[in-house]
Amino acid sequence: MSFLLIAGQHGVAAAQVSGTVTATAGGGPIEGARVTLQATATTTTTAVDGTFTLDATGTDLVVVVAHKGYFNTSVTVTSPATNADVSLEAVPQADDSDYVFQSSGTCGVCHGNQQDQFQDTPMARAGHNTWVHDIYDGSGTTGGMGGFVYTRDSPHATANPNSECAACHQPISWIQNPGAPMGDLDNPDAGLNHGVTCEVCHKIANVDETKPNYPGVIADAVTFTRPTPGWQVVYGVLGDVDFTDVDGSRMRASLNPQLTAVMCGTCHQDKNDPDGDGDFEGANGVISEPTFLEWKNSPYGDPTSSQYQTCVDCHMPSTGETTACTVLSDDLGRSDTQVRSHKILGTTPAYLENAVTMSMTTSVDDDGLTVDVSIVNDQTGHSVPTGVTIRNMILLVEVTMANGASLTHTGTQVLHDLAGVGDPTQGYFGGMPGKLYGKLNHGPDGTGPVFFTDATGIQFDTRIVALATDNTSYTFALPEFEGNATVRARLIYRRSWRALVDAKGWTTDGHGNPLADVTAPHFGHLMEETTEIVALPGLPEPPEEDGCCSVGERDPESTFLLFALVCIVIGRRRRRTGG
User: Closest Cα to residue 234, out of 223, 247, 225, 222?
Assistant: First the structure.
């Protein structure tokens, strides 16, 4: 046979399977192909000459070979085996513009659990996000024309009236019609209703990793495989799926490792293009959605790091199920970690409350009370907060006495006005002790905030990068009288600058859920909170008098009556004593 077979006959161990992987139609060996014992963690990759050796023992072993750009192909062998040779067929890179994307309901016929998980998520409803429509053309809510409206207010709206919103929020419409505008909320168009549906992700053949800042599914950066009638392809990440329809017209698997993170970056990493030259990697403009590169440039994005985790690891946790198909009766016996949830979530309470760790220390001296707050981004694979640049966090530090009086803040670390200017009891915390975490963009005149579509630079970026620690300190004047003070630090997440929320009149988020930003007591989602009771020095508190008060505190009439009563008592005493 081949040199591998000859060598294998004399040296392959009893618990090994070996072979060679080549391309069909006379193609040469394929290096770096993934070879997997189906439904297990037993895997290896092919050498430069296409050879592999897999540690496996047993009979009727299904060995699946996968490589990006080729259909997965399997061979069934009994170990030891030296002839597990496989030829991989290249996926035709046709892109049929007449292809009709299947709805998630169609995929759900076989993948019912995944459909149930997906159907009510922000991914599924991306095209219906009312905040996106309010920012785009003001049509999302009744107050949507307040504040910034791209089609009305952006200097780029004339040259680029549609912007690139649909490339992420209504990707099917964009794929079918590059440059498409956002469809109306009441538009029954399938591209709008499907959101980021199954095939938007599982039809991605390649993402150009040299262009991470291109927004959404722009053709210059993202390649789709839309099959012509008669054959099909579905890209995935396991690499051990060998299922093929009888005629291959509904499903045939192919490996694309980019679906674990790089694909996510197509919408969770982008940059604006203020000079309109179509180059989103150029020197002009500002990165508006920075999440992917924040991850990639951290230890979480380094495959050699012990902390390496992909987007899928965090946002698509395993379900505990052992099969990905609800129709096929032959369970492959997968481990309970391989099937991933398609309920893809981000800024939910579970994620927000497990994003960072906050601690607080206090000290008292003659100069006053000092409060030190430390926030560690130790549980998130990117900066906090991340996403679009209107998202922000507020650290609020308060010190109150038992009588409700607040101590005077003598430090300089206070919240930026973007935390809201107005009544603190209504959530306007600007100027109060604390810190605003966010990214403030500015326009051509150097002032901000401006919406990211119009940004030309960054005024400040105080967000906490992955694994970093932010420390702030606050000082308060001591009270006149001694007593216990309650020191309280709260870290609060907000979906938008308060001024924009007020301008739009938003009371729900983009998916119709009650908006915590305008709801007491925190006016945002409480991520972390810590309190401490501190004994403060001062003068002894004067004792309370039993229902009475000093003469100086009485009104004139009461004082006169008391004086008259004293005179009467003294007169009686004098008569009794003969005085």
Answer: 225
The candidate with the shortest Cα–Cα distance to 42, out of 340, 341, 333, is: 333
> Token match 């990211």: residue?
452
Domains 3-88 and 349-536 share a fold: yes
The architecture that CATH gives domain 349-536 is Sandwich (2.60)
Classify residue 70 by its DSSP letter. B
Structural domain boundaries of the chain?
3-88, 93-118+201-345, 125-195, 349-536, 547-579
Helix H, strand E, coil C: the string for 151-167 is HHHCCCCCCCCCCCCHH
List, in sequence order, every residue forming a beta bridge with 460; answer none if it has no partner. 440
Cα–Cα distance, 128 to 170 (Å, whole number): 9
Written as six digits, the tokens of 395 are 């650290």
Q: What angle do CA 302, 305, 306 make, to 5 degrees?
A: 140
Token pair listed for 339? 């099937």
Tokens of 58: 């047993």
As a whole number of angstroms, the distance between CA 433 and CA 489 comes to: 10
Four-residue CA torsion sign, 62, 63, 67, 71: negative
Calculate the alpha carbon distances from 474 to 97, 363, 369, 435 in Å.
60, 11, 8, 10
β-partners of residue 86 are 21
Confidence of residue 6 (pLDDT cuts 50, 70, 90): very low
pLDDT in tens, 278-308: 999 988 889 999 999 999 999 999 999 999 9
Cβ neighbours of residue 246 closer than 8 Å, sequence gap 6 or more: none
Token digits for 133? 């429509």
- Report the C-alpha gap between 465 and 461 in whole angstroms: 10
C-alpha of 254 from chain center? 28
Length of the chain as a residue count: 579
SS3 373: strand
Closest CA to 462 of 523, 405, 377, 536: 377
Full-prediction pTM beyond 0.85? yes
Whole-number Å distance between alpha carbons of 173 and 185: 13
The residue to which tokens 């000290």 are assigned = 363
CB 492 within 8 A of CB 527: yes
| Architecture field, domain 3-88 | Sandwich (2.60)
**pLDDT-derived band of residue 546, with 50, 70 and 90 as boundaries?**
low
pLDDT band of 329, cuts 50, 70, 90: low
